[in-house]
Amino acid sequence: WSWESSASLSRSWLRPSASASEMAGWRPVADLFTHACSGLLFKAGTGRKNVVAFVAGTLLPDILSRGPAAILSLLETLPGVLIPDPLHHFGGPAHAPVGMVVVAWLLCFLFHEERRDAVFRNLLGGMLLHQVADVLQTHVTEGYPLLFPFSHWLFELDLVLPTDSMFVAPFLMFLSWMVWRRARGPATREAH
Hints:
Order of helices and strands: HHHHHH
Oligomer: single chain
Shape: globular
């Protein structure tokens, strides 16, 4: 196994000929929406503190691992541009738990010292929720290296297809909106 799957999957999102349907290009967007909504719903049930950090955590693994690969793939479509294959995979470790800890730790230093612990915990919590959701999926590859860099053992539960997020995203967005609207309560709504 290698991080190549991340880049090749990102590249397939960018090429309509590589997709099985015309909607395949929307899959990454729907996937980000489902991750963000799962973070909103989780925070609605556990408390409202640090929601932005938590939801950002649900998005960061895909943004940091697939985003650079997608950008590099776009650049490769330009005449004469060749990008070494290892560069397509440098963000892959951000999609593994150890990489998530490192990313959350580094990002928390962008905040005032008194907020760092809460930001770290919420970023990491969002990233781990992201990982739980991803492990439920079936992928082109054989799964996620949950123990990377200590092991290359791969794991996924094969319960849902990655394209299912396109159909779940609208429902999750509506549900998230309803839950947060209701949770605000009448006193908060009257204050606005």
